[in-house]
Amino acid sequence: MYIDRILFPIVSLGIHKRLVIWTAGCTKHCKGCANPELWDIAGRKDRPVKAILQMIANLHAQQTIEGITLTGGDPLEQPEEVLQLLEGLQEITEDILVYTGYTMQELENLWSPSMLERLRKNTAVLIDGRYIEELNEETAVLRGSCNQNIIFLKELYRAEYEQYLSKGRMIQNVYMGNQLISVGIHHRKGV
Ligand code: SF4
């Protein structure tokens, strides 16, 4: 599986202290994408899902991971790997938020019923659709643009997420090595 980075704890991409996984690879190339450096997988290491799960389990043994967010890149451009990852992560937490540039309708046309079932069973919240720069509004909390949908696949989490959404967008600055990176949903470029 192509992964660019994993950070913990992050509070700006979902409720509680989350582990956030940025996958690499996206063919959608939305104008104004926040992470164009993650589009290309050339030269990147293809890591076994088992090794990623083990690394996360080791971290969880030391510090409780309260939720997990998958973003990218488009995690769902690696369907079999991401489904295995989602299944393995259930032992850590069932609060898993997945971003994808596909709409749910596109997924329903592209994926088999069994793949969709695995996705629905192992994802708490799905945020779907391409990023449309002109629709990047402050009201789109947890979303890059207003066209994207927040789909609650596990109703259990709806109330907590709705409370989180009511607080507006959040940005968290974290160090990755010597590099300071800003995590969250940002304003449109140049605004
Ligand atoms: S789908 Fe997401 S990662 Fe892919 S180009 Fe669009 S905004 Fe960027």
Report on this model:
The chain is α/β, with parallel strands linked by helices and 191 residues long. The protein has one domain. It has helices at 49-62, 79-89, 104-110, 113-121, 158-165; strands spanning 3-10, 18-23, 67-71, 96-99, 125-128, 149-152, 171-176, 179-184. The strands form 2 sheets. It has a 6-stranded mixed β-sheet, with no helix packed on it. The longest helix is centred in the N-terminal third of the chain and has 14 residues, at 49-62. The protein is globular, with a radius of gyration of 16 Å. The termini are far apart. Bound molecules: iron/sulfur cluster. Iron/sulfur cluster binds next to loops.
List the main descriptive attributes of the protein structure presented here.
single chain, 191 residues, alpha/beta, six-stranded mixed beta sheet, two-stranded antiparallel sheet, 8 strands, binds iron/sulfur cluster
DSSP strand tally: 8
Low-confidence stretches: none
Spatially, the strands of the biggest sheet line up as 1-2-3-4-5-6
Helix/sheet category: alpha/beta
Largest sheet geometry: 6 strands, mixed
Q: DSSP strand (E) fraction?
A: 15-25%
Q: Which range best describes the helical content: under 10%, 10-25%, 25-40%, 40-55%, 55-70% or over 70%?
A: 25-40%
How far apart lie the N and C ends?
A: 35 Å
Please give the count of helices.
5
Ligand species:
iron/sulfur cluster
Quick one: overall form? Answer: globular
Average pLDDT value?
97
